[in-house]
Amino acid sequence: MYKVKDISLAEQGSRQIEWAELHMQTLMKIRERMSKEKPLLGIKISAVLHVTKETAVLMRTLHNAGAEVYLAGSNPLSTQDDVAAALAQDGINVFAWKGENEKEYYDAIETVAKISPNLVMDDGGDLHALIHDKFYSPNIIGGTEETTTGVVRLKAMEESGVLKYPVIAVNNAFTKYLFDNRFGTGQSAIDGILRATNIMIAGKVVVVSGYGWVGRGIASRMRGMGARVIVTEVSPVRALEAVMEGFEVMPIREASKIGDIFVTTTGNINVISVDDIMQMKDGAILANAGHFNVEIDVEGLKRASKNVRNIRPFTDEYLLPNGKRVYLLADGRLVNLAAAEGHPSEVMDLSFANQALSAEYIVRNRNLKKAVYNVPDEIDNQVAELKLSVMGIKIDQMTQQQKEYSKQWKYGT
Length: 413
Fold this sequence. Notes:
single chain, NAD, alpha/beta, one-carbon metabolism, Rossmann fold, EC 3.13.2.1, adenosylhomocysteinase activity, Adenosylhomocyst_ase-like_sf, 46% helix
């Protein structure tokens, strides 16, 4: 079963997936083993992920491991239609296309939610929430969650006592957030901004809202391209860290008056309000790198504007009552996936290696309590070791003396 935009795009999508596989050798090593062992044989997986060429490499890996896979997109604008077509041709049950409206988006998620899965694989928490609300099945062994936003939602479910199955927070793996969130989003968000606008970064004042791992990545790379970077934060610890790393830190209300480009990265709502937007320079650019399109008050901006027109793909001009113009990219959705291709394959290699191994771990450990778990250390380390190996990099090993020394408490100075 499938519902995609154009199945005739499958050949083109297969070439895209082939390119990703060439740059995701960690996951390909895992696929090689799983194809022989079939650890997921007979397992039905419901997945809501960004339908990109990198996700396709994961889906093929799970399929080769024996799983029956159902996939929907985790963002209405992030699906790569040629890749979706190729997956459908490969035997993956995929329901995704770029440009879904809100009803189509949730209908697709509902399609994969109601198959009575054994494993639930999500990016953002929409699938987990829908299954808990309407489609829970006792057949569910457990699930995984790819991103910070989804983990926050799942922790809230756990704390409220409503979580019905164990979930591994893939996002919390060192080999995920230290690389995907920082290096992946740091590069791909800028890629999306450049594709949408073709502006020069050097010399611009860039305001990054949030200094988590995503914000750190974007701020450092913007600075590397010659921007003057301002960070806005609500956490005193993260704000202090940004200051110590050489960034200007100030409230968004002050930064809104001097920024040229604004990028939200917090996972929270109305981080940039209409009042903030009214203070911006004529020609200010607004982009979001958080999971949902709630960080910029898009609806408030639409209500307040005198006129809206599309200037170029993924760039809409809003004429404000004061005569100034601001430019919203990708309708406030994830700019790296809506206006570009998402993270580079090399960094998704790490994230999706964690996904594949976490799925295998849940199937092999069926007595986990209903809680949110971090990726086991042995999986995190295995992913790092595999990545180093395929990169041709060797590291030192502790001697027996060093191992014993690291476990003792008697030696002093």
